[in-house]
Amino acid sequence: MATPVRRHRGGVMQDRPLAWARNPLTEFDQLVNEMSGLIESTVGGAAPAVAWTPLADVTESDEAFHVEIELPGVKSKDVDVEASGQELVVTGEIKEKERKGVLRRSTRRTGAFEYRLRLPGELDTDKIKAQMSDGVLSITVPKAEVAKPRHIEISETGQSGESSS
User: How wide is the angle at C-alpha 141 spanned by C-alphas 137 and 146, nearest 5°?
Assistant: First the structure.
């Protein structure tokens, strides 16, 4: 059985299955946003503020974990980064702008946000660095000396069982 092919205008073909085109988490997020909009339009006020989780990438090197969190429009003074043991917690708030007139539609995230991450192994929490640039919070969490990988050299032994130098 052949996999379905999506055809676009101009005869360009896409060779991946249709199911790959959708991200269920994105669809769920859109559903929550639509439901919030329905509640707002029905009740006439804003829904109660619930902490949301910003998008992030986490990478690991031999020396540290690197976390990049998307926080567009957020000032560094409105963000709090805490580390306790193996857990990293980033909290803050995007304040809603004061507007004149009636806001008919809003899809921008506002309110309290929280990002929690539990990292494996021992961490050096005293040397954590964080910086904000172009709406991206970059956090470097160094690994403790005991947690870093160590290269072990293998020695050769001769046929008689003696080690050769």
Answer: 175
Separation CA 121–CA 123 (nearest Å): 6
Neighbours of 128 (CB within 10 A): 18
Task: Give the pTM.
Answer: 0.59
Q: What is the pLDDT of residues 107-154, one digit of tens each?
A: 778 889 999 999 988 888 889 999 999 999 999 999 988 766 777 888
Domains of the chain, each with CATH number or no CATH: 1-47 (no CATH), 49-97+109-148 (2.60.40.790)
Whether 41 and 104 have beta carbons less than 8 Å apart is answered as no
- Answer for the pair 64, 141: CB distance below 8 angstroms, yes or no: yes
Which of 27-31, 32-36, 46-50 is the least confident region? 46-50
Strand, coil or helix: 98 = coil
Phi and psi dihedrals of 32, rounded to 5? -60, -45
Question: The tokens of 20 are what?
Answer: 């790959």
